[in-house]
Design goal:
With about 220 residues, the chain is an alpha+beta fold. It has one domain. It is built from 9 helices and 4 strands, in the order H-H-H-H-E-E-E-H-H-H-E-H-H. It has a 4-stranded antiparallel β-sheet with strand order 1-2-3-4. Helix 3 crosses helix 9 and helix 5 crosses helix 9. The radius of gyration is 19 Å and the shape is globular. It starts with a helix and ends with a helix. The relative contact order is 0.15. The mean pLDDT is about 95.
């Protein structure tokens, strides 16, 4: 489980996002990161049973993203992220693909899966798969349990105009307009600090798994 002291550190970092404070509290950061790494290792074992494409040998340390922000091209010059991001990739996604992502932030944690902003050739392949086998995707995303957990899949970032090569009367046009293909579920602080947190998150990912299978099949 994620410990209270990990969330406390992130909360205080929001109001003290500077190098001086961070270095003075480096030991607290190291403990928080270790907590997240340990949690990730446990989650990987559970996730491999759900999605065999997610290797049981994943290095938990490499899955936990850096807390240091790249401020070179950003107007926001604060040097640190106020969250821990955990990327859980599946095999064959070296150049991007369907994966799972856990975001740990006080009051704003969530688990997500799918493919965020696919590169051009992958986006083209996914749209082609939707055009050919859109029914398979709608069966997944219109399932009442899926909608209850993740909301309206079609209500995410999409084109304002028609995608190239597709007509307005295409039965799946709203899916073809999508720029990302993400399912996301918010998690409370209580949920991520629970002894059953890893099981809860893995169970949610099991509901995302069919979506990831559809997306992976599209870009094979």
């Amino acid at each position: 489980m994620i410990q209270q002291q990990t969330l406390d550190f992130l909360n205080e970092l929001v109001d003290n996002n500077n190098r001086e404070w961070f270095m003075a509290n480096k030991e607290r950061y190291d403990l928080a990161r270790e907590n997240v790494i340990d949690f990730t290792a446990k989650l990987i074992k559970l996730m491999h049973k759900i999605d065999p494409a997610l290797s049981a040998d994943l290095d938990a340390k490499k899955c936990v993203m850096r807390i240091y922000r790249d401020i070179r091209f950003s107007k926001n010059k604060t040097p640190y992220k106020n969250n821990f991001g955990i990327s859980l990739p599946t095999t064959g996604t070296k150049l991007g693909g369907a994966e799972y992502y856990l975001h740990i932030q006080p009051g704003k944690s969530f688990i997500a899966g799918g493919y965020w902003m696919p590169e051009a050739n992958h986006l083209k392949a996914i749209r082609q798969e939707i055009d050919y086998n859109g029914h398979d995707l709608t069966v997944i995303i219109d399932n009442p349990e899926f909608v209850k957990l993740f909301g309206d899949f079609r209500a995410q970032d999409k084109l304002k105009t028609l995608p190239r090569d597709y007509a307005a009367d295409n039965e799946n046009i709203e899916l073809l307009k999508l720029k990302s293909f993400i399912a996301m579920h918010s998690l409370t602080d209580k949920e991520i600090m629970s002894d059953k947190a890893a099981d809860t998150i893995a169970q949610l990912c099991s509901k995302i798994y069919p979506l990831n299978i559809f997306l992976r099949n599209a870009i094979v």
